[in-house]
Amino acid sequence: MENIDIWNKGLTLIKKNLNNDIFELWFKPTTFKSYDNGEVNISVPNRYCGEWLKTNYYGLIRDALINITQEKDIKINFVPAKEREKTEETEIIKQAPVKSTLFQEKRMLNKKYNFENFIVGPSNQFAHAAALAVAENPGKSYNPLFIYGGVGLGKTHLINAIGDHVARNKPDVKIIYLTAEQFTNEVVAAIRYDKMYAFKEKYRNIDMLLVDDIQFFSGKDKSQEEFFYTFNALYEAHRPVVMSSDKYPKEMLKIEERLRSRFEWGLIADIQQPDFETRMAILKQKAELENIKLPEDVILFLVDAIKTNIRVLEGALIRLGAYGSLTGKPITVELAKDILKATISEKEKTITSDAIQKATSEYFQIKLVEIKSKKRTKNLVMPRQVAMYLCRELTALSYPEIGKCFGGKDHTTVMHACRQIEKLKEKESRLKDIVDALIKTLKA
Can you give the pTM of this predicted structure? Predict the structure, then answer.
């Protein structure tokens, strides 16, 4: 067997243990360099690629090559291709623009999301006011702004509205809007193509950064590190950073503490589930914009049936409008129920804190009055924390509201309980099974 075959056969084994995207990104660009006395040298495009392979896949590569060579042990060296004569920094200065498609790509704001068409109600009034203040006084009011709330409640709309407002009033301002997932993809590509300098230049010299779904950074150490330094650079230059998440900062357990603390430096604004009147206003506005005409009783049915996700509510409206337009049939409540049966339930069950407390008390065989009491005996602490956690997961109640349901507990007590259960669930499969069983019972 020729030496070069060692790496080719090794790659075949490695590929079986990875998804195709990972293999194509990190392993395909590598080439065999040399093999001598149990030491294999592999050529990689740049040092970042070599460091990534060494950190994340060294064991997998070693096992594959031992299998091929039948050596007892093997050492792998990742050798960067010959450095170009000019440094990356020099190239970036002279290139205008940088040719990599990664850095040519523009993150465009969604023009349909602006303040003019955002319906304000009790559930989002505070977040809307904070967003408008940032848009009118970027960098001076509430920096950073952190907006959190459930899926489909308007976080993306508000973030885009901030960017739209600033862009319209200050056309020369450099704004980047993107999701945390897109930021992570750029970090990976920058490492892969040895473009970290260009990456840093791009993000640390803008006037405003808008990042959606920040919770996506959970568990992604390199992305967190790059965002941490990007955040610091912008913050120190008094440039606004706006973020959204489906969780409160302290609930994001796989985000580094130093980063979570920065999320709390400015203002945190939450968006709750909208009330009936707000949902009705949103749906009627959407129907008008899309020129969809539905009977009033059908509109009422939709608003009453879909309470927790505005995106789903609007999607249901568009689906009914399309069905009526394509078939020519008049849309009735009964027809709407049939068309949307996979999306909604006619009798959507509302899970209350009382139901959660009752189910938890019965499961742990304690008295209902005890779970609300101030006693902190060992047999009560865990059930109480589980019940608080379930209230947070299954209802729209805020931390202070949950505290009131448990005999007037402070909101920090509720937050601690939720974080504690979240941590323990990852370590103790028994607790995870208990929580899952209670959720199943409550949703049945």
Answer: 0.60
